[in-house]
Amino acid sequence: MSNTTTSGGGPLPRQVADAYVDALVELDPITGTFLGVAESSGKLPDFSPTGQEAVAQLARTTLEKLTEAESRPGAEQSAEQVCARLLRERLTAELAVHEAGEGLRTVSNLSSPLHHVREVFTISPAETEADWTALAQRLRAVPAALEGYRAALDAGLKRGLPAGPTQVRTVIGQLDEWIGTDRSWFAEFTDAGPDALRAELTEAAGVATGALGELRDWFRDSYAPAVEGAPDVVGRERYARLARYFNGADIDPDEAYAYGWSEFHRLLAEMESEAEKVLPGAKTPWEALAWCDEHGETVEGVEETREWLQSLMDEAIDGLDGTHFELAERVRRVESRIAPPGGAAAPYYTPPSLDFSRPGRTWLPTMGETRFPTYDLVSTWYHEGVPGHHLQLAQWVHVADSLSRYQTTVGIVSANAEGWALYAERLMDELGFLTTAERRLGYLDAQMMRAVRVIIDIGMHLELEIPADSPFHPGERWTPQLAHAFFAQHSSRPADFVESEIVRYQGMAGQAIGYKLGERVWLQGREAARARHGADFDLKTWHMAALSQGSLGLDDLLSELSAL
């Protein structure tokens, strides 16, 4: 590894960053499993206030070590400075969130300690009897982990920091589904285990399921009544802090809100033009997309859809590698999976382990459906898989030794990754991969959803006024109810997806804006680099340099992309 100490023996910033990763894995075995650390396999984190404070104290001591490292000879090197800026920005943003008590009110339908506990089982090694022995141990650790989470939420109530009641009601419903009426999600998960461990796995799954039931009952009987009447929106001060955490930049919410509306109007005009090709005379683009639901290209069957998505990614890799990207063999491998039931409705991606023993994977929540229109899937899998999340995050892992593990794993900035993935959708349109009007209208619908996210995420949390030129309730102030109606009116997504999305934005304020704001930075960076190089600009070279930078917040991303 290129991260060497100075002649005086002290670490440089990249070493400080990687030492932070090692220490974090000790405190957070879920992160360890994502990174492929075998010793993490049987453990779960301490989500209690004490556990949260231990992670915060690690951040504080790391920042002190970083200050010392930045004064050493060699720290002036560009690679060291880039890593140092990221580490300082990320840890400072995380501490601001911690010190405001956000970890004591984290209830979400997508990302919370509860969800991390379940998700880690889907990425844990499960090939050998030893793997399943560790999984049984991890199942038995579920009660303590969820008790720590409950203690944190209790502490939040004592400090006057409630979660939103809508998130709480939604999570109670998710817990009902995970517990089941016949067999629980944990029981079904252990079905794949070896017969030699059947009794142990059955008992351990029962222990984990019992913990879900206790948490569900506490949410229903104690926490939900305590937060009834609390706001589902966060207000300007909390929004600024959370937006900084998710975007790696101090966002001007009023400018971003105006940008969201400008993109809405641009995309609406383009969608109306494309809809005319799909269904001449359609009153709205979503009428044309509803026609596609019934009469357009579809894939029938859950397993058939998984295979179709795999082939879509394989074809994209073959079409892009060597022309617009230069991919290592291990980056070319990505798997299509079906998401476990009971989660949020949106597809997602999980990156490979550091040694690539676990490949990158895309996950499709079926929401009980068995028939899937392809107009909705094509652009989404360009986003989640190739050339979106997979090419970026797997490339980061591929170059981890020349950067730092921190820059390529736990230092991820949501808006950077989501911005690249949205840029990837647009790139595939630019390159002509959306071969039918139906698929292109689906792409524009996906773009519109990200513009709508900017409008309603900022609008409802800050209770902004809807502008006079809006086709929807001009002059009124946003509420979650208006946000729900606006999203439903300007999206092809089914009702359960729309409901899931609004709850998601309420529980993760500031995250949803990063798609469009991040895409804007990626596009601006590309055009600045193109202008600088002129006729010598090479898109493949720029793509690979851009994907090999590791994580950057939006504050730094534009300048680094422009300089490539």
TrEMBL record:
The record's InterPro entries line, in alphabetical order, gives:
DUF885 (IPR010281)
Q: Which domain of life is it from?
A: Bacteria
Protein's UniProt name: DUF885 domain-containing protein
According to its UniProt entry, this protein's organism is Streptomyces angustmyceticus
